[in-house]
Amino acid sequence: MRVLIAAGGTGGHIYPGLTIADEIKRRFPKGEIAFVGTKYGLETSIIPRAGHRLELIEVKYFERKLSLDTLRTCFVAVKGVSQSLALMGKFQPDIVIGTGGYVAGPVLLAAALRRIPTLIQEQNAFPGATSRILGKFVNLVALGYEEADKFFPSRKVVASGNPIRQEIVEVTKKEAVDALALEPGLPTVVVFGGSQGGRSINQAMAELRPRLLAHSIQVIHQTGQQAYPSTAEGILTRLGKPIPSPLPDMVQEGRIRTVPYIYDMPAALAASDLVVGRAGAISLAEIAARGLPAVLIPFPYAAANHQEKNARVFENAGAAKVLLDKDVSGKSLGDLVFELLNNRAQLAKMAAASKSLGRISAAEAVVDQIEELIRPV
Asked: What domains, with CATH codes, occur in the chain?
């Protein structure tokens, strides 16, 4: 089996592609897999590190207004399709899969023109414009949320769930607490706003810090790489400690750990009693797989406000509380966090609702569909 996967831009598009690739390799050890991306996204570092071949094409964000830049973008798009057609001829894939990012457009269109079987894995409850357009041309759309089915022809849709890394569900709570050197038995809150759009969460956490320090709660707070230096320096200054260069990878004040990035997210989620964060589709899939209650603060500038739509699915199921970005403050966030931590029955009910949304076998479901598409008639 030869598989081409178009995945680019953010981890939310790239990691589902990698998870699908892992399942394909498990079933077809001799299969060949290549990814397609652009030189601008995270794929240039993530995909080679995962051991996969990466091909690069040219593609740009399409402005939704007529301008000179729109014409340039159209030229680049045509070039991207041409490059993709050449790649089809060189790699000769049996199937082409798109897991998101602008790169999926020209690659899947080229595959459709070559009559190569195609599949989109759409992560969000409200699909992006690229996916909605491609839905008319591809053979199948595997949905992360059933709520997205109305945007695609019904005969092409299957609700698979969003593929997540297997290690997300493999780590036990005890293993996670030991690995992260946390205090057993204390309520643990994991907070992550991500490298994009975490400013309001970081500000609220700064305001909330004294209240958190006054209670027996342990917190892991991911600030994002850009916000970490100023946040860490502020904490060290308040503690009366010197500011080293380079800064350490973690600053701790009481039971609050502040980090630029949570590298061991499987352990962090396994140790958590409550998650506070954005509402990216893959983050939510991982939260649901662990059956965790959450306070969700959707990134307000996500395309078509898709993060709020994702978050409302969890809220409607009783798995999360939604706090809009414009309403976030130390007080509003703190009130929600303490309301939930002080009501174990409600936390347990939310955890059960979250677990009901989890689809730990989503990657297997997607690859089942891939096998169906390429099976000789």
From this structure: 2-164+361-374 (3.40.50.2000), 167-357 (3.40.50.2000)
